[in-house]
Design goal:
Helix 1 packs antiparallel against helix 2. The chain starts with 19 loop residues before the first helix and ends with a helix. The chain is built from four helices and no strands. By secondary structure, it is an all-alpha fold.
């Protein structure tokens, strides 16, 4: 039997993850989107913010997070 997913007009579509790791990566990518919007003084998310989230999530999944966040590491005080 095939699963049927019917969304009503007011329902939101949430992403599905393959495990806890992907869910954690999604959370970090959302946090990075929030920080980027906040640093630029934006009151709402725009297209650029969503692009940052998408690129961050992809980088986290591929294991490239260190290279992607290289500019943020000196601000953390550990590097």
């Amino acid at each position: 039997m095939q699963e049927v997913n019917i969304l009503h007009e007011n329902e939101k579509r949430y992403p599905r993850f393959n495990g806890f790791g992907e869910m954690l990566f999604w959370s970090y990518a959302n946090l990075q989107m929030l920080v980027a919007a906040n640093n630029k003084g934006k009151a709402t998310y725009d297209r650029q913010c969503y692009m940052i989230r998408a690129k961050a999530f992809k980088a986290y999944k591929e294991g490239r997070w260190l290279r992607f966040n290289k500019a943020l590491l000196p601000q953390m005080g550990r590097w």
